[in-house]
C-alpha cells in the first residue's frame, strides 16, 4: 500500500512539473476581420505568424508565466500575460486597432480595412490624423462602396458625398456651391483632369476636404478640394480579378494583386489594372481606356519607409459637349430633343495619355522627430478633333433664328502639359508641460509647363457664314449681297448646320472648311509655399493653428522676347478647435481662408494693373460621432463661405472691375459604416444656399449660383445574409436626389430629380457574381448644364453584370 502511494505521488508530481499545454488564438482588426501574417511572440519560447484566418498556435508549453506580444504593420501592438498551470488548451484572442501614429505624413502602407468607414486622413493636415480629431469636414467614399456600386469612374461615386454634384460630364464638380476643377492625388496637385473621366480601379478612396484647403495646399477652391488616394501595397497576399459586361456594350476588366515580395515583409508590391471598352447612351460616344498602376513599398526598418507609384492611363474616345435643345428662349422644353442626342461627326476623336509617378519618403530621426518628402511628375498629352456647337442657332436670310438648326464650329488641338510637385516638411511630436504638440514646418513647390509645340485649328463661334470673296463673317441681313446664299435665300455656313430634327453623322475633314490655325503658346507657372502648423492637445481640447505664405508666379509670354513675370501672393491663416464631449463624440469649430490667383492676361490687360487674387473665408462648426462600437461614423457640419475679388466686365467702359462677391451657407450630414455585423450604409444630405452677393450686373445680386442645388443627398445600403437559405447573398439599394439648379442662362433651370439603384451579389467560395441596376425607374434627369446648347443628361436605366475571383 505504501509502495502504491509513493508511485501515485511521483506520477502526480511529474504531471504537475512536466505538464504540457497548448496556447492558441485569433488576431482580428477592429472590424472583426482576421489579420493574416501578424507576428506573435511568446516569451521564452519563440515566435509564429497567423494564417489566413488570423489563427496562431503554440504547442507543448511548460507551466510558468509568459508574455504574448502581437504586432502587425499599421496597427498598435498588444501584449498579454498568461499563466500556464496544468491546462490542456488556452485560448487568447487579440483585437488590434489601426495605429494612426505609425505612418506619419505619407501613406506608405495600404488601408487594410474593408468597410464603408474610414477613420483617418492625411489630406487636411498632412499628418495621420483621425477624421474625428480634424477641425474641418472631410467626406469620402471608400473602395468598398465603389465595388458594391460597381462604380468604375469618379463621376459615379460623387453622389455618395454630401454637398458635391456634377457640373458636366468631365472631372468638373460643384462643391458647396463653388465650381472646383482643382484636384489632388495623394495630396499632390495635378492638372489635365478636366477631360475624360478617370477610372477608379487604383483608388483606395475619394475624399473631399470641404471648404478652403489653401492653408495646406496653396491656391484652391473656396468650396472644397477633391483628393484621390491611390491603393498602396499590403503586407498580406491578396489577389482579385473581375470581369464586367452590361448596357451600352460595356466590357470591363480589373486586376488587383498585392502582397510581400520577400519573407521579411520589407518589400511590398501592388499592381492594379483597369480596362474599359464601351459605348454610351449618348449618340456616337465611346469610351476606351486602359490603366496600369504598379506600386512598391520598401520598409528597410521601423524608421524608414519608401513608396513608389507609377500610373499609366490611355483614353481613346470622343469629347461629349452635351445635349442641345430647340431654340434659346424661356420655356423651351428640355425634352425637345432626346437625352441621347449629341452633336458631332463620325470621325471625331479625343485621345489622351496620362503618366505620373510619385516617390514618397518618411524617415524618423528619433521617436519624436521625422522628415517627410513627396515628389510627383504628372504628364498629360492630348490630341483632339471635334465638330461642336458654335453656341448659336442658324439664321435665315432675314436674320431670324432657326431653332432646329444648330450652328457648328471645329476645334482641334494637340498639346502637352507637365507638372512637377514637391512637398517636404519636418514633423516634431513632443510636450510642453501638459500640452502635447504635433509641430509641422514645410515647403512646397509646384510647377506647371505647357512646352513649345502645341497647336490647333479652329473656326470662329461667331463668323460662321461664307462671303462671296471667300472669307467668313457674322451674317448681316442688311448686307446679304456680301454672303453666299443657298436656293432658299439663306446664308451658307462654313460648316454645315446640324439638323436637330433630322440628325446625320457624316465624316468631316479639315479640308472641307475654311479654317484658322494657331500655335498654342508655351505656358509656365510656379508657386512656392512656406507653412507652419501645430496640433496642440490639452486633455479634451485640441487646437490647430496653421499659417502659410504663398507666392504664385505666371510666366506671361513664356519663352518669348516679351516674357514677363506676373506675381500674386497671399498670407493664409487657419485656426481650429476640437473638444471631446465623450469617448464617441467630438465638436469642432474652424476658420480658414482660400486663395485663387487671377488670370495673368486679365491683370496685365487692366489699365491700373491692381487686381488682387480671389480671396475667401470660411467659418465652420460641427460634430463628429461614432456609434455601434465605433463601426458607424456620423459627421455634421454647418458653414458660411464668402468669396470676393471676382472680376466682372463693366457694361459702360468694357473694362474689368473687381467687385464681385459670392456666398454659401449650409449644413451637411455624412453617415458611413456598419449598423450591426452585416448592414453597411453610406448616406448624406446637404442644404446649401449659394448666392451672388455683389456684381456689376445688379440683376444677378441674390441669384443662386450655377449648378448649386438647394438640397441634395442620397444613400447606399448593402446587407449580407450570413445564415439560412440566403447565406452569402448581398442585396443593396441606393438613391440620389438633387433639387433644381440654375445655369449660365438666367431663364434656364434644370429640374429636380431622384434616381434609384439596386443590386444583388452572391459569393460561392472565391467567386463573386454581382448584378447592378442603375436608374431602375428610368428617370429622365440632367446632372448638370451650361446653357440651351450644353446640357448634360444622366444615364437612363442600365445594368452591369460582373464575375470576380479572389485568391
UniProtKB/TrEMBL annotation:
Keywords: Cell outer membrane, Ion transport, Iron, Iron transport, Membrane, Receptor, Signal, TonB box, Transmembrane, Transmembrane beta strand, Transport. The keyword Iron applies. Coiled coil: none annotated. Its main location: membrane. SUPFAM superfamilies: Carboxypeptidase regulatory domain-like, Porins. The keyword Ion transport applies. GO terms for cellular component: cell outer membrane. PANTHER family: FERRICHROME IRON RECEPTOR-RELATED, FERRICHROME OUTER MEMBRANE TRANSPORTER_PHAGE RECEPTOR. Residues 132-225 form the TonB-dependent receptor plug domain. It comes from the Bacteria. Residues 300-776 form the TonB-dependent receptor-like beta-barrel domain. This is TonB-dependent siderophore receptor. Gene3D superfamilies: Carboxypeptidase-like, regulatory domain, TonB-dependent receptor, beta-barrel domain, TonB-dependent receptor, plug domain. Residues 1-19 form the signal peptide. Belongs to the TonB-dependent receptor family. It is found in: Cell outer membrane. It is a multi-pass membrane protein.
